[in-house]
NADPH-dependent FMN reductase
Amino acid sequence: MPGNESSKLISIPLLNILAISGSLRAASTNSALSAGLAQNAPTGCRVIVYDGLGRLPIFNPDDEGERTPPQASALIDAVTAADGVIVSCPEYAHGVPGGLKNALDVVSRDAAVGKPAMLVHASPRSLFARAALAEIMRTMSFALFEDTALEIALLGKKPPEVDRILSEPASQLAMHNAISAFTDFIRSR
Ligand SMILES: Cc1cc2nc3c(=O)[nH]c(=O)nc-3n(C[C@H](O)[C@H](O)[C@H](O)COP(=O)(O)O)c2cc1C
């Protein structure tokens, strides 16, 4: 309705966020947390969980450009298309699991640069992996959002208990609020 300023609709573009779990376990707590984020995304934001980690070939800089494997191209395209990336990752031997580091290496050349990213945590004790992952992602020039640290303690829990914890209102609010803070960060850039 021209001339009627109060009736103008402000359209905010939908944000697409890619969630990556660093665990390949069928009963992974990190994958459950990633799925929980997808279910608790705030209005105006869609979280899609990446499921190709286990099929990614090991990164080889000789296989880039036209030689990029299709699975790697798919991940590069998904990260490029996403407005932000959320990573939930276990700690193995005080480090980042090889599969996740491999995925980050795949996107590090281009797609990672300036891409907003946030870490979330399913284990309260994985402090070495958290620090290493943050260092790796900063070095790859991800724009790491570090103001909010979502932690939902799922370490050692079996799927029914994990589901119960993630269905608690406090957990759902924490996931919703963490994504909201991340989307504010994305939109402020
Ligand atoms: C090979 C291996 C090494 C691990 N090393 C550590 C470790 O150094 N520190 C730690 O806190 N947990 C360690 N863990 C435990 C996992 O980080 C923990 O079980 C995590 O919650 C698994 O995540 P997931 O449920 O998503 O698979 C290790 C587990 C495995 C299988």
Notes: The domain at 14-184 is CATH 3.40.50.360 (Rossmann fold). The chain is about 40% helix and 15% strand. The longest strand covers residues 15-21.
